[in-house]
Amino acid sequence: xxxxxxxxxxxxxxxxxxxxxxxxxxxxxxxxxxxxxxxxxxxxxxxxxxxxxxxxxxxxxxxxxxxxxxxxxxxxxxxxxxxxxxxxxxxxxxxxxxxxxxxxxxxxxxxxxxxxxxxxxxxxxxxxxxxxxxxxxxxxxxxxxxxxxxxxxxxxxxxxxxxxxxxxxxxxxxxxxxxxxxxxxxxxxxxxxxxxxxxxxxxxxxxxxxxxxxxxxxxxxxxxxxxxxxxxxxxxxxxxxxxxxxxxxxxxxxxxxxxxxxxxxxxxxxxxxxxxxxxxxxxxxxxxxxxxxxxxxxxxxxxxxxxxxxxxxxxxxxxxxxxxxxxxxxxxxxxxxxxxxxxxxxxxxxxxxxxxxxxxxxxxxxxxxxxxxxxx
Length: 376
Prior knowledge:
This protein is an alpha/beta fold. It is built from 13 helices and twelve strands. Strands 1-9-8-5-4-2-3 form a seven-stranded mixed β-sheet, with helices on both faces. Strands 10-11-12 form a three-stranded antiparallel β-sheet. Helix 4 (84-90) links the parallel strand 2 (74-77) and strand 3. Helix 3 runs parallel beside helix 4 (84-90). It is globular and about 75 Å long. It starts with 12 loop residues before the first helix and ends with a helix.
């Protein structure tokens, strides 16, 4: 029986043709295809200012830099995320301050954010986990009340909307990921959307070493000198990545709807099980991941059982404060953030992608049930 992979992309002829067009052109990096992508992606999310970058990780670090986060500043965020979220603060010698999450969704708890604010707090990084938008109206109000920057880690949430708010609508900066398993992919890569023109212009420089003009803008009949205006990064998107991404934009909502239909099939099939908790969602989720919680102490055995039955699965995520580096550097105990720790010890992400067939969903559910039953 064929293995059901955790994820499969659906890149095809349109993407191949788009990349071939770029390979036959003059520019391979930070050229006209990047500009074309930025405009098209900005149109999709409803934002004018988009900067294509090399990864979501670099995007988060650059966003904090452009928004003035510096050494000693506190940045509130969630431990229920990938390590790149809090690491972005560490890159600037700022201090990531974790707060706990909602047990139903895994999303950052606005009340916990409010309680964690100190005179050193300068920003909040909210994570739109699994594709579900966090409570942006409440978080925006908290940040406005206390003069804080609000950054959206939207690596999972390109298509998301909640409470009449779209992704990137209320954040000071919103960072997207185009990593291999994301709903739109170029293998790697990312983008930053901002609402401030000066911040946008600064990010354009920061991604390219802090210089005043990139190579494409200097491509004129007469040589154009450039200057270094500030310390920047080597973090530009390539035209090859942009070429891969461009044809996918028109399919984003169609593919999201296909994933939602698979999520709903999973939910119906698992609704009667007392040993499986399905994470909640509302509004328009991107449905980047379908994540369930299994009984404490059984997760690794269930993962083994799924693997033995030909089912790919993943863990998204072990709570960051329980990882070795953060435990040793900051002295966190597991129960410092008990909800996140519990989710991190029980969570399993099951296969979810637009091409997943109904009979494959059914087979995953059966394999999950068999794996759990074998532990009784």
